[in-house]
Amino acid sequence: KFGFTYKINENNSLYTSFAVANREPNRNDFENGVTTPETLHDYELGWRFKSKNIKLNTNVYYMDYDNQLVLTGAVDDVGASIRATSGKSYRLGLEIDADIRLSNQFSIKPNAAFSSNKNRDFFIDENGSPKSLGNTNLSYSPHVVLGNILQYQPIDNLQLSLLSKYVGEQFLNNIEDTNSKLDSYFVSDLNLAYELKTKTVFKSVVFSGLVNNIFNKEYVANAFDYGGGYIYYFPQATRNFLVGVTFRF
Fold this sequence. Notes:
Number of strands: 20
Radius of gyration: 23 Å
Distance between the termini: 41 Å
Number of helices: 1
Shape: globular
């Protein structure tokens, strides 16, 4: 890997990089008949901005694969995910994240990822003969992922955070079967942390509370596709709570 960074001024900088990576199949892949290594050529171009109240990072990437190890959607008899090589494929995307301080009490930290993830000239075996499906979407690869953290700090030792996340729809296999697809979902969590300074054995005691899925959303974040209409979904928990105490020495 090598790259360059160009500092335009105190607030702005540009960078670019190129990398080559190789990955061998793991034990599970070998057991399922995959013996070809994966090769990646990665190209990236980015812009960074930094001021007193704003930090912004943007990155455009193009990941060009030979024999990418992609999930098929199925699992083996011990529950391990089955992968296969997909020939030529790519991932092209834009990533953005920011940290914006609105005031002494409020800040927001948004992030976004937009991508196109494709198998090139994907073939399947149909009745013993290869059939071309053209370019298809890579499995488990949503085109849009969005997130945000809204933080409120009314006093120095108390912080409240609202965490939100959106994940776009995604296919469970590489043939774009509309019956084998996870719907998009949007969930939010609420986190509270209070730090109590002490002069005893501990430097401080941190009390924390987390409300997951505060809007009680029913959604599915993962699934397996065995083919032939056999799909196993993993529904996520509705509203739930966690509390904790951390002692700092």
